[in-house]
Amino acid sequence: MAEYKPSDFFIGIVDFFAILLPGSLLCFLFLDFESKIFGPVLPALNGDVQRWVAFAVASYISGHFLFAIGGAWDHLYDNTYRKYKTRRDGDLSKSVTPLFAGHPGYSDKIPLVIWATAFVRAKSDAAASEIDRLEADSKSFRGLSVALVFFSIKLAFGWHWWALLLVLVLLTLSLWRYAERRWRRVQLTYTYCLLLK
Question: Is residue 1 part of a domain?
Answer without folding.
Answer: no
